[in-house]
């Protein structure tokens, strides 16, 4: 039996170096069997990344089956009652939209927030267009919703666009041109020109202002998932209040809170909860550094 020349720990026959101080073992008379080891062989399929991948795929499969049953059961009931597919189309489309937004990200190997946002946004836009066509037989109210969603997507893309693209594309100019184009498009669809400047333009100013402030805050000061959640919830709150006040001013002649009060009651507790969690995590981080844990 051999011993380490540095720390004196007992060495096995197959040790290439000291297990305690990592001093190389040099014994020309000793033959080594490197197939032996003090530690279990690391198996790639047991790694944390692969386990998470399997769990994600399993969750995606379970959600896919759930949404498939949500689409299949109404279709069977509809066909059994009417011998055709009528009202169940709406249930099927809703299930497909939920699958794209909820289950599909679990089945993908790599997903980012912006890709998921783009996929869900596009699926929602297609769902709205189909819903408009199925209910009215033409492309009527959906054009306002889809164009607004396109404006929001452009504003969001400016936040998550990569740095090397931002060098050649002036994001602020893109925001301005997109907002002007959106305003001109909505104005061309509205017959009452007074509504363009008293209703559409203020709503657009509120939307663009909120996203510009969000863009600069995220790029300069805000970092972390909780801060992003707080910012998104705050944006929704401000947009809903601004839209409510603007719409009531246009139709009633005075500013008043109507439906936005419900949004405030729903979102403000969520914002407060997120802020408390953020403060607790920040305090825990500072305390861990102080205690060296």
Give a short overview:
71% of the residues lie in helices and 1% in strands. It is mainly α and 293 residues long.
The general outline is extended
Distance between the termini: 39 Å
- In DSSP terms, counting alpha (H) and pi (I) runs of 4 or more, how many helices? 9
Largest sheet strand order: 1-2
- The overall pLDDT average reads 77
Number of strands: 2
Helical content stands at over 70%
Question: What does this protein structure show overall?
Answer:
The chain is an all-alpha fold and 293 residues long. Among the domains are: 1-41, no CATH class; 44-111. The protein contains nine helices and two strands, in the order ββααααααααα. A two-stranded antiparallel ribbon has the order 1-2. A hairpin with a 6-residue loop joins β1 and β2 (10-11). α1 (48-82) packs antiparallel against α2 (88-107), α2 (88-107) runs antiparallel to α3 and α4 (142-160) packs parallel to α7. The chain is extended and about 100 Å long. The two termini are 39 Å apart.
């Amino acid at each position: 039996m051999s011993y380490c020349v540095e720390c004196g720990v007992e060495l096995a026959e197959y040790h290439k170096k000291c297990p305690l101080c990592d001093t190389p073992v040099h014994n020309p008379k000793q033959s080594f069997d490197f197939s032996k080891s003090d530690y279990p062989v690391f198996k790639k399929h047991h790694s944390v990344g692969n386990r998470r991948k399997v769990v994600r795929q399993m969750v995606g499969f379970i959600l896919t089956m759930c949404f498939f049953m949500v689409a299949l059961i109404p279709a069977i009931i509809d066909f059994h009652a009417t011998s055709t597919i009528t009202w169940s189309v709406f249930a099927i489309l809703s299930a497909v939209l939920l699958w794209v937004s909820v289950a599909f990200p679990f089945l993908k190997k790599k997903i980012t927030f912006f890709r998921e946002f783009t996929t869900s946004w596009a699926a929602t836009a297609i769902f709205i267009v189909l819903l408009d066509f199925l209910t009215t037989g033409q492309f009527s109210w959906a054009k306002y919703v889809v164009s607004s969603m396109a404006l929001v997507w452009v504003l969001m893309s400016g936040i998550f666009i990569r740095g090397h693209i931002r060098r050649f594309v002036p994001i602020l100019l893109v925001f301005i041109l997109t907002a002007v184009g959106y305003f001109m498009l909505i104005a061309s669809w509205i017959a009452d020109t007074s509504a363009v400047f008293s209703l559409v333009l203020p709503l657009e100013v509120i939307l663009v202002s909120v996203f510009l402030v969000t863009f600069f805050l995220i790029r300069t000061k805000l970092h972390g998932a909780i801060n992003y959640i707080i910012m998104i919830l705050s944006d929704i709150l401000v947009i809903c209040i601004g839209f409510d006040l603007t719409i009531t001013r246009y139709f009633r002649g005075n500013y008043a809170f109507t439906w936005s009060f419900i949004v405030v009651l729903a979102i403000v507790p969520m914002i407060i909860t997120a802020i408390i969690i953020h403060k607790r995590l920040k305090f825990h981080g500072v305390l861990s550094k102080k205690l060296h844990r």
